Amino acid sequence: MASIEPVAERSLLDLTFASLEGVLVAAGLPAVHARALWRALHHDLAENLSGRADFVPPLRRWLHEAMGPAKAYELAFPTPVADIASADGLTRKFLLRLADGQTVETVLMAYDGRHTACLSTQAGCAMGCVFCATGQMGFVRHLTPGEIVAQVRHVQLAQRVAGKPGLRNLVLMGMGEPLHNYDSVMTALEIITDRRGLNLGPSKITISTVGVVPGILRLAAENQPYQLAVSLHGATEEERSALVPASRRWPLAELMAACRTYFAQTGRRIFFEWTLIAGVNDSVGHAARLADLLAGLDAHVNLIPLNPTGGFSGGPTQQAAAKAFQAVLKQAGFPSTIRQRRGIDVAAGCGQLRAEKSRRSAVTARG
Ligand code: SF4
Asked: Which of 145, 154, 194, 271 could serve as a FRET partner for 278 with CA atoms 20 to 30 Å apart?
């Protein structure tokens, strides 16, 4: 068997099935041994690879060497810092600490009998949406594929321990902009959708973007099988760029052209996210402008009353105004959903738990 060169440590969770096979073959093992290792990692959700009866001796020897002093590979998992359930029991939020001390949030939602995890793709975020706690903290770094996969494993294990059903849906709507970390996200999703392991259906996975045009065009060109959600929040350039600074880089007209290209190439419905902020973007006039903007697209609009954050003074739209907004969209032929503001008591808005924890640590340190 070829010896393992000491290279920068890399997580086994970063590897797709094909790259795991390649690594084993390069080490002189038959590719078929990847199956048992993959099963242990992504099906059994093993946290320890030693002493497994299904590993043949050459695979055990390779793991011993690879994860030993050569330190070519590691298998580290994020440490839970907080695990908080909402009062209604339908939302559970995990704050996970990564190897370098960064913390990210992962949320489990159990509405209508479906279990959905909301994943983070970056520590912090560069997009700076004014109403978002993550945007307010700025960009720190991209997550690796393994750090994204580890969030799914964490939630699946929590469900297993609680005797609850496994995840059915994923939304990449937590901390960070997924299309700003395109390659890591696509690798992670390839791992997560692999039928031999975590086996989540690609059509049950939604990538949410604030409007990173090159990423949308790449999704279309590669015909990636995931759902696309685009956060709009404003239907004119002026209104949108006041809430979403990324709109100055990828203007609304360019974004909508990319959405039309995406729809023409994939034929897939696009979900548009609209955070309803009282007195800012929630009038029937705003709804009419949104309907005009979406004309000709197969679109579904998700209306999300704002989750208030400390760094933004806006408040959520009341139910009556949200219904009036929805009626205008319906009249124009666009289906929409008003999301219920659940999980407020666990700071379920993106980045809020991390911000809350940092604030408490600062207060404790000062006290
Ligand atoms: S809403 Fe999303 S894209 Fe905007 S700052 Fe927050 S995490 Fe980033």
From this structure: 271
Give the bridge partners for 106, in sequence order: 94
**Sequence-separated (6 or more) residues with CB below 8 Å from residue 47:** 75, 77
Active site residue 237: no
Residue 14 Cβ inside 6 Å of ligand 1? The answer reads no
If you count them, how many residues does the chain have? 367
Ligand 1 pocket test, pick from 177, 181, 212, 273 with the greatest ligand atom count within 8 Å of Cβ, gives 177
Rounded distance from Cα 65 to ligand 1 centre (Å):
41
Nearest to 209 by CA among 162, 251, 173, 168: 173
Q: Is the four-CA dihedral 25, 31, 36, 37 of positive or negative sign?
A: positive
CB distance 308 to 351 below 8 Å: no
Q: For 316-356, what is each residue's pLDDT tens digit?
A: 899 999 999 999 999 999 999 998 765 555 555 666 767 66
pLDDT at 69: 77
Contact (Cβ atoms closer than 8 angstroms) between residue 303 and residue 338? yes
Lookup: tokens for 51: 């002493």
Closest CA to 108 of 88, 82, 81, 90: 90
| CA separation for the pair 319, 339 (Å, rounded) | 11
CATH 3.20.20.70 residue window(s) in the chain: 79-363
How much is the pTM?
Answer: 0.91
Domain at 79-363, CATH homologous superfamily: Aldolase class I (3.20.20.70)
Spatial separation of the C-alpha atoms in residues 76 and 13, rounded to whole Å: 9
**Collapsed DSSP state (helix, strand, coil) of residue 119:** coil
User: What is the CA angle 202-204-207, rounded to 5?
Assistant: 80
Question: Is pLDDT above 50 for 3?
Answer: no
By most ligand atoms within 8 Å of CB, the mutation choice from 106, 118, 127 for ligand 1 is 127
350 is known as an active-site residue: yes
As a whole number of Å, the CA-based R_g of the chain is 22
Burial (0-12, 13-18, 19+ Cβ within 10 Å), 357: middle
The angle formed by the CA atoms of residues 5, 10 and 13, to the nearest 5 degrees, is 130
Q: Specify whether the CB–CB gap between 116 and 168 falls below 8 A.
A: yes
